[in-house]
Write a structure and sequence with these properties.
With about 290 residues, the chain is of the alpha/beta class. The chain has helices spanning about 1-35, 75-85, 90-110, 120-125, 130-140, 155-160, 160-175, 190-195, 205-210, 215-230, 245-250, 270-290, and strands at about 40-50, 55-70, 70-75, 115-120, 150-155, 175-185, 200-205, 235-240, 255-260. It has an eight-stranded mixed beta barrel with strand order 1-2-4-5-6-7-8-9, surrounded by five helices. The structure holds ligand C2E and magnesium ion (MG) (3 copies). Ligand C2E binds near residues 95 and 259. One magnesium ion binds near residues 60, 119, 151 and 181.
């Protein structure tokens, strides 16, 4: 009997593994096509708002993949896969080209969008040409370096690769803003933080969720804010979706807020409307106070 169960269990895992492998291969092939077809990938912009004034600081650019009509694959799944297969290099190039093109359009029409954050994976940063290619592309589209922030995860720092450090230094020297993403989920030490001289620290959504619900998460958020500010960094809280979280973060002088409370990741046009409506609302309410 036991033997029989074991066999069934084996078959079950075998089948599950098989399905996983098939999905991997399928996604990998489809992703290859998507990058070349270009239409299946798109960008969203999630607003980042100044916690004290409510003014729009900028947005994080986030990648979207529509694998077939109405069917979307989450970035959490396909970015991880693309990092493993190396496809992230092509995807990263697609992102840079399309993002800078969009920013050039906005700059040309005088739309003030603030600063755009882009995610860069450690696989890209391990390439010796990354920083130079990014700067060259920005030059090609006449994008001022001050308009871009590069987000890297703690894990990227932990790789402790000389190439990664060189690329980040080069970007920093050029005037690009550097941000540590998903802070608290990895294992970065204080010495990495100091050495990199990053400008922003983004506290991960998993801790923000705990505000008002989990005391140790609140302690972590408080300590992280204090650490960042004492190192002279600005702080961004991601995944803020309630007023209670916002108030808590404002009390800690958190600098910028990103989350569903203000907006989900938006299409370029919708981001433009969001900014215009919001600045208009802020200006009129300030006028109101002055009277
Ligand atoms: P991330 O960089 O930490 O991005 C923030 C994620 O949190 C986004 O998920 C965003 O939609 C989500 N989020 C923000 N506010 C809220 C909220 O209030 N509630 C909830 N439930 N979610 C919120 P998304 O777009 O699915 O991206 C997931 C991850 O995929 C990103 O995490 C990033 O690591 C990666 N990613 C996305 N686009 C790119 C890209 O262009 N390049 C690279 N290398 N990675 C990317
Ligand atoms: Mg990010
Ligand atoms: Mg993040
Ligand atoms: Mg995160």
């Amino acid at each position: 009997r036991a033997k029989h169960d074991g066999k069934n269990t084996y078959r079950f895992f075998d089948k599950a593994m098989d399905a996983l492998m098939k999905r991997r291969v399928f996604l990998q092939q489809q992703l290859e096509l998507a990058v070349h077809r270009e239409k299946d990938l798109s960008l969203r912009f999630q607003p980042q708002v100044d916690a004290a004034t409510g003014q729009v600081y900028g947005a994080e650019a986030l990648l979207r993949w529509e694998i077939s009509a109405g069917e979307w694959v989450s970035p959490a799944e396909f970015i991880t896969l693309a990092e493993e297969t190396g496809q992230i290099l092509e995807i990263g190039s697609w992102l840079m080209e399309n993002l800078f093109q969009q920013m050039a359009i906005w700059n040309a029409k005088g739309f003030l969008f603030g600063k755009i954050s882009m995610n860069i994976s450690s696989v890209q940063l391990a390439r010796d040409t990354l920083a130079q290619r990014l700067l060259n592309l920005m030059d090609k589209f006449s994008i001022p370096y001050s308009q871009i922030c590069v987000e890297i995860t703690e894990t990227t720092l932990m790789a402790d690769s000389e190439m990664v450090t060189e690329n980040l230094k080069r970007l920093k020297q050029a005037g690009i803003t550097l941000s540590i993403d998903d802070f608290g989920t990895g294992y970065s030490s204080m010495s990495y933080l100091k050495a990199l001289d990053a400008d922003h620290l983004k506290i991960d959504r998993s801790f923000v969720i705990g505000i008002g619900a989990n005391e140790s998460d609140e302690h972590i958020v408080r300590a992280t804010m204090a650490l960042a500010h004492s190192l002279g960094m600005e702080t961004v809280a991601e995944g803020v979706d309630s007023e209670e979280q916002l108030t808590f973060l404002q009390k800690l002088s958190c600098d910028y807020i990103q989350g569903y409370l203000f907006a989900k990741p938006l299409k370029a046009d919708d981001f433009e409307h969001f900014v215009k409506e919001r600045q208009w609302a802020i200006n009129t309410s300030e006028d109101g106070i002055d009277d």
